[in-house]
Structures are given as C-alpha cells and as structure tokens.
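Dear support,

I submitted the protein below through the web form. The confirmation email said the job was done, but the results page showed an empty box. After a refresh the structure appeared. I'm attaching both so you can tell me whether what I see now is the final result or a partial one.
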Amino acid sequence: ASPGPAAAPSPAAAHPPEAPPAPESVAGVEIRPHEGAVRVMLGQVGPGLRVRVRLADAEHVDVRATGAAADAQFRTAPGRVSITGAAEGEIVIALPRAVRRAAIVVGDRTYMTKDGEQLHVLAPAADTAGAEIVFPVAP
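What the results page shows now:
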C-alpha cells in the first residue's frame, strides 16, 4: 500500500483569521439644563470634526464624542458643557426638546441656538439629516 497524495493545506490554515476591529472610542457626559437653558462650547477643535445635534425626548443633555474626538477634555457646570481639544471624529449632542434656550458654540462663533420651539442654525455647510442637524467645524 502506497501512501495517498498529501492533502493541500486549507485556506483557513494558510491565513489566520483577522482580529475583529477594535471598538470605537467613546467619551461623554450628561448634564441637566439649568433654569431651562444649556450651552455646549467647543474649543481648540481639530480638522475633520463633525457635530451632530438631535432633539430628544429626555431630561438630560447627552454629549458624546467618538473617534479621536473621544480624547477631548470635558468640563461641566450647571447647564454647561465645555469640550476642549476634540480632534477628528464626531460630537453627538442630544438636546432635550423641553430646553427653552440652548446654544452650540465653536470657538467664538455660535453655530446653533434654540429659543423656545425655534431652532436657528448659523453654521456654515450645515445639513439636516432627518431629525438631526449635522455640521463640520473649522478649527
């Protein structure tokens, strides 16, 4: 009896499976509006940062950063969130519908305000995607 032909290695054995992608970095805070108002301020932003604002049926303002923006520093005060050093990535702001007054400020420029039921988008190149407002920010 002669040995049969050698079995070819399976493709799976030749190339080990790829590791699953690392989970995306996320950081953020939640705050309560102060006397019906909230202010979100972004300073020292990097190129490629995008801000997404949506109205939410919630009591808290939820601010989350993803990608490299998750390395930013977050500071809070009553009715206020300050984010410094957000790089490329995205900042997502869930703004309660019940908030009477709100402002999203990048550097020294106001990008969006809310006064009662009225939203005022002042950001250049803003895009409304359904119930969301999305805008790139310039450093």
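Response: this is the final, complete result; the empty box was a page-load delay. The helical segments are 11-14.
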